[in-house]
Amino acid sequence: MRAFITGGAGFIGSNLADRLLADGHEVVVFDNFSTGQQQFVEHNLNRPNYQLVEGDVLEKALLASAMRDCDMVFHFQANADVRGGMKNTLIDLEQNIIGTHNVLEAMKVNDVQKIAFASSATVYGEPEQIPTPEAIAPVQTSLYGASKYSAEALIQAYCEYFDWQSYIFRFVSFMGPRYTHGVIFDFMRKLRMDPTTLHILGDGSQRKSYLHVHDGIQAILTAVEKAKDKTNIFNLGNTEWINVVDLADILCETLELKDVKYTFEGGARGWKGDTPFVHLDIARIRALGWEPRYSVHDTIKATIHYLKQHEDLLYARS
Length: 318
Ligand SMILES: NC(=O)c1ccc[n+]([C@@H]2O[C@H](COP(=O)([O-])OP(=O)(O)OC[C@H]3O[C@@H](n4cnc5c(N)ncnc54)[C@H](O)[C@@H]3O)[C@@H](O)[C@H]2O)c1
Prior knowledge:
UDP-galactose 4-epimerase, domain 1; alpha/beta; 19% strand
């Protein structure tokens, strides 16, 4: 297929591009490099089956012309900063909802009938049911989550109107190669500045599940191959979870830092919109034959080792 990846220069999108190329597909990446990195795409620039279009999903005409002759869209562009929505209450609407609408309109113009969408576990807010199945009625606790839930709804409606197929993935946090934002990233930056103290947002008891990006991409491709409904919604997560203090312990041990003092700010939540316990029910994706290969512990270790070897990335994004 000729795959169109919005956000294909970012952490997850660029890993997906590499995997699709390795599987023999053609790839068109559409990205404005707001958080994407040249170093994640440059090894592909001379490949005949790879095209990079530098552009913004808010530029509708450019988006539509770049998508010409594509068979499927992987919509992975977003404002992926969950915390930022309280300071800038417009960004999630503009980037994640209008951005998705523009992608759907470009699909209509080009008669592209399949879309995979990077949604998030954040759409569940603070669910009562843990592990959380896909079929709950969530209450939104962040504008990021609300924008992802709204984008899912837009995608579903386009699929109903035009008989398209969609694959909606609600991810826990992904980690692994090219990881450029999230808890380990924040902690490593803080420890670079002061290796004696680690300031933790929240009381450190927040429990989260993490998935290795290669496992996540394998799950996405499994679902695209095997799921047959008009709208196919899947949780993507790991079988276990870890709390923030235990994660910090693994980080300090791996970095060989001794006697780091942890300080805490806030209570059960690190910030408004943070979810104290993220653990998804992954029975639906497992029923298609997918299993995570990396444990949460191995995922964390792999991410720390990657960032140790690519310390420039710690400062590539503000
Ligand atoms: N990383 C995670 O753990 C995680 C968890 C849940 C959901 N997601 C979702 O997965 C997707 C990918 O996340 P990521 O971690 O790779 O983030 P990322 O920030 O690394 O990637 C996003 C990419 O989109 C590009 N982009 C942003 N705004 C754009 C615009 N207006 N026009 C064109 N390109 C634009 C950026 O330059 C970047 O390359 C996002 O939709 C994110 O919300 C990520």
